[in-house]
Amino acid sequence: MVLVDFGLAGNRLLDSLPRQERAHLLTGCEAVDLVFGEVLAEPGGRISHVYFPLNSFISQIANLSDGDRLEVAMVGSEGMFGMPLILGVEESPLHALVQGAGPALRIPAAVFGRHLARSPALQTLLKRYFYVLMHQLSRMAVCTHFHQVEARLARWLLMTQDRAHSDQLHLTHEFLAMMLGVRRAGITLAAKALQKRRLIRYHRGDITVLDRAGLIEASCGCYASDRRIYRQVIIEGEAP
Prior knowledge:
Elements: H1 19-26, E1 30-34, E2 39-41, E3 49-53, E4 57-63, E5 69-75, E6 95-100, E7 102-108, H2 109-118, H3 120-146, H4 149-164, E8 168-170, H5 173-180, H6 184-196, E9 200-203, E10 206-209, H7 212-218, H8 221-235
Antiparallel strand pairs: 1-7, 2-6, 3-7, 4-5, 4-6, 8-10, 9-10
Helix pairs in contact: 3-8, 4-6, 4-7, 5-6
InterPro entries: cNMP-bd_dom (IPR000595), cNMP-bd_dom_sf (IPR018490), Env_Response_Regulators (IPR050397), HTH_CRP (IPR012318), RmlC-like_jellyroll (IPR014710), WH-like_DNA-bd_sf (IPR036388), WH_DNA-bd_sf (IPR036390)
Protein name: Crp/Fnr family transcriptional regulator
Organism: Litchfieldella qijiaojingensis
């Protein structure tokens, strides 16, 4: 097991814990490097570990019986993967896939459960994070149904940029179409529109965010809403 520094962890959720509680939880964690394309959980499969991404991110994808797939959540350094465990459920409802390679902290599910049982501060924080996830999932459903592809793509690029901690992204049209649940042609048109407005530069899967403020303006209000709820509930610790 790789030792972990007991100071600030580099994960915003962990760093919201009181120092002593954070240090206690980190004693059970190990530092790992997540690999692009690595599968962390399958639908119906057992959750073996909880992951706290640092400079990496995980897509949580719903698989339909006809083979279609849709990303319903993304977890980076603002959160954790393994939330069903706080409800006493060891089974993953979604496909968890590493989309952004990089470092993360990992703790075995059983060890995490023991820490959770002994830490009221951790219980409170994760209940609040669960509320944030519920908000994000509801916004995702509304966004997918009502908002135009160009605005949804802008939102998704912003979410990815936040978690990748970089203006440089590598995302093919095929992947974006799968993540947003639209046809590849729709992604092509939306990406061309954003590029024409000089918000992004796109070439063979390499995307550069040129104008973040403009991309925020081009996105739907769901992006700002997600950030507001996270800041209010997790960072500021206010009641939603």
